[in-house]
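Morning run. Coffee first, then this:
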Amino acid sequence: MYLAYYGLTDFPFQLTPDHRFFFGSTVHCKAMSYLTFGLNQGEGFIVLTGEVGAGKTTLLGHLLDTLDAATYVAGRIVSTHLAGDDMLRSVAAAFELSFQGLDKASLLRRIEDFLVANHRMGKRMLLMVDEAQNITPQALEELRMLSNFQIDHKVALQSVLLAQPQFRRMLMSPDLEQFRQRIVASFHLGAMGRDETRDYIRHRLTVVGWADDPHIDEDVFAELFAQTGGVPRKINAFCSRLMLFCYLGDLHRIDQAAVTAVAEDLAFERGTILDASDGAGSAGIMQASSLASPFDGEAQAGLERRVAQLERQIGKHAEALRRLVSLGESFHAPGRPFD
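And here it is:
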């Protein structure tokens, strides 16, 4: 919606992980060092944990982009509470191996034959498991058993596990002692600091051709850090709304007032959703709506700004529709029904 208005080539704050926007913050560079060290070991498991939205998947995408495609063959699993045999089928699917109708012994043989064939071609096999906190202990044990498979005294399959912090507690189970002994590198990805939050925002904008439009006041970045805690996905979500707010308001400058307005809108929306989801029904929604009471000056001003935004947006859409109709009529042949 706002790309042409600000001269951008793509949306800078998408929520979907995209390694094109990788930003080498202190914590992300340190994580890359651990991942690279683990890969150089050529065996066992590499574990990367972090809070939701910390940038684990983007980091992994950046890592894969740096690897030699002629050397590495990578497969990926997004875990959804996989059990033991499900894990083996998922591994086969990750490397595009057929597994339908195979019993466990035949499935293992197919995976092993695939690993042997690639090893003979000088390939290194890398399995990436996302959302690993959902894996059952039985499925982890199946992964550990696959990691035992060696060819010419070299491990045939190495795995990288991405997970939320609770995975570390799961690994402390006595039943997973053997698995823990196979972890060659482990790192927890934390949030960015205030200065790096500023640099992260500027970096993502620069990637899509930002030429200081909209201009961002320097004091805004401290507030953006306060609103997001330096978590990449939270930054993206907030800044995406901020860009839309500025576009709807025909603004070419982001100041504290704009950030405050977006923060109020988001807080209002969260309050409405949370009240409704708590089973409060219409009473909950009315409680949230009472924030916009005429007796609350700040809330009333926030609501008025929101209404004005929507009115401007409707006006722009109406103008676009009028232009489309006009364009269609210019191609319409006389005497022919207009579809």
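The first strand starts at residue 45 and ends at 50. Good start to the day.
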